[in-house]
Amino acid sequence: MSKSLFERCYDAGEGITAKTELLARELASNPPPYYDGLHMILLEGVKPVTKVRTPSGEIKDMLMFGSNSFLNLNFHPRVIEAERKAAEKYGSGAGSPPLYAGTTDLHAELEETLARFCGTEAALIFPAGYSGNLGVLSGLLRPGDTVFCDSMNHASLFDGVRLSGAKLVPYPHLNMKYLRKVIRPASMIVSDGVFSMEGSLAPVDELVRIKQENGCFLMIDDAHGFWTVGEHGRGTADLFGVRDSVDLHYGTFSKALGSVGGFAAGRRDVIDYLRYYARSTFFSSALPATTVAAVLESIRIVAEEPEHLNNLKRNRDRFQSELEKRGFNTLNSRSAILPVLVGNEEKLGRFQMMLFDAGVFTNIGTTPAVAASKCRLRLNVMATHSPEQLGTAAEILERCAKQCGVLP
Length: 408
Fold this sequence. Notes:
- The protein is an alpha/beta fold.
- The chain is built from 16 helices and 14 strands.
- It folds into three domains: 1-28, no CATH class; 32-64 and 306-403, Alpha-Beta Complex (Aspartate Aminotransferase, domain 1), CATH 3.90.1150.10; 76-304, Type I PLP-dependent aspartate aminotransferase-like (Major domain) (Aspartate Aminotransferase, domain 2).
- Strand 1 and strand 2 form a beta hairpin.
């Protein structure tokens, strides 16, 4: 099977110049069909209908199915007010790493809140979700350690293990039988809770059993699960009834809460160790207090206003049913991430651009996130979508899919 453009440019030639010049030439002469879709400019914050500027300069209102802001709290009046008050008191940025002069009383409150939320002894904030995983894994692991990693885990988990120098052993997606065959005592198991390109859920209860039988350390990255699945949005491990048996929970504020940042939660000795050895927090400025205030208020809102989680579940169930009834393969997703399998990059690019033209904003998944032969649309449902908007989007998806050969 031929390689995609981005695979070819990654492997091309020797030295930096050969790679960068090849990509520039290819994008100028023969860009992939989905290229324009990667360069849409939002002219306002994410809403169910969002104003967007296309690469051609056209400005249009689009039904938004491309955002990870599942609860769409970024315009909630309480969140805006909390951020405004924090700006007046703390200013616009931290200006220092957490262990120097970057920790305010708001940061301390957020870490305490996250520990209670996860049912752990302590928690640690990171400035970004991706860099937090790099810091956690490179901080905890050393050459000679072994990590078993689901093949569909987020790139940050693979990159964190590689940065540590530990031995990386991927196992087929969700294949617990295979994992049982290859697992080694006293190793580490790392898995997403909700898989970002599949929408599938890790069998965390089975992972806990394998961990306990082999004396392993289990880390669950629930970036797409916290505040979307489980009772009160407490995540995938909580959904499976094993929250207290996970050694390290990891999450972000950039998905359901619509902000930015990451966090780890676990035993106090593990979290205290990471404060000194997770370089992506030790050598980075702390999150701005304005962001921390917005995250804290968002967490309170989810706890006090259950309608946000209820609306999200209702909308994802309704939209998945609409898609599957029209013949789309959503890969049995069990989350607010609804993939639509296409399997051909040319068709995927045409499909996405037709959707943009018809006023539906979507994302795609292809290399390096997934194999080109399994490329897909990636549709994210929000709690604030109306039933009418979901119905309209499903009709447009069906019409465009038939026109470009994705559906017969």
